[in-house]
Amino acid sequence: MNNVQAIIADDHPLFRSALQQAAAQVISSERIREASTLMELHSLLTQHPETELLFLDLTIPGAKGLQGLAEIRNQYPDILVIMVSANENSDIIAKAMALGASAYIPKSSSLDVIGDAIHCVLEGENWLPPLADLPSTEHNEQADFARNLEKLTPQQYRVLAMIADGMLNKQIAYAMAIQETTIKQHVSAILKKLNVYNRTQAGILFNQLSTLGDHQDALNITETKL
């Protein structure tokens, strides 16, 4: 496990340091890199395609909640993602797992618990907080949508994000410098893959991923036990 390449993406230096300490129990510290924004994370992933493990803060700047996780899972499906957050809302945890996270670690967790979670994920298992009481997602529209997002190509994902922003096909085509007919083909493929009826439904479900509930990491970081 010491050969695993990892990135810690969190905008709080104190928590990045704590994660470094916890991860160093399992991973060589020389193989752990850090990012404080989603843009920095993408830059690191481009520079280091060998990255195998990612610690992703739910509210890292640029992420727009769970849209950040969805974006990473779409572009880098082979990377194991461990979500870290002060938000312990069961709906958020369930959505993160549906989007393909391998673990969800509350920032109130001790270093030993974080170490156990990392070890579990590297052994190929998912990890959840011991007392997590997650709602059933078996027939949940949002959960189905989250799972289907992985079927989109990176270009289709980009089109979906623009649809969610309210852009018309003509505007999307201009932004991507491609023909409007190509955008129409992308939209048709997106609706089919996501199993939704129209672009409005797709946009609404996508935007719901940015809903974080009432508790924000920035407000709770001082309450962590790290």
Q: What is the strand tally? A: 5
- Please write the CATH class name of the largest domain: Alpha Beta
Spatial order of the strands in the main sheet? Answer: 2-1-3-4-5
Largest sheet entry = 5 strands, parallel
In whole angstroms, the N-to-C terminal distance is 24 Å
Mean pLDDT, all residues = 87
The string of secondary-structure elements, in order, is EHEHEHEHEHHHHHHH
Number of domain units: 2
The CATH architecture category of the largest domain equals 3-Layer(aba) Sandwich
Mass-distribution shape: globular
Radius of gyration: 18 Å
Number of helices: 11
Helix content: 40-55%
If you consult CATH, what is the topology of the largest domain?
A: Rossmann fold
What does this structure look like?
- Keywords: DNA-binding, Phosphoprotein.
- It comes from Pseudoalteromonas fenneropenaei.
- The protein has 226 residues and is of the alpha/beta class.
- The chain folds into two domains: 6-136, Rossmann fold; 141-210, Arc Repressor Mutant, subunit A (Orthogonal Bundle).
- Helix content is 47%, strand content 10%.
- It has helices at 13-23, 38-47, 66-75, 90-98, 111-122, 141-148, 154-164, 169-176, 180-194, 199-207, 217-220; strands at 6-9, 32-35, 53-57, 80-85, 103-106.
- Strand 4, helix 4 (90-98) and strand 5 (103-106) form a beta-alpha-beta unit.
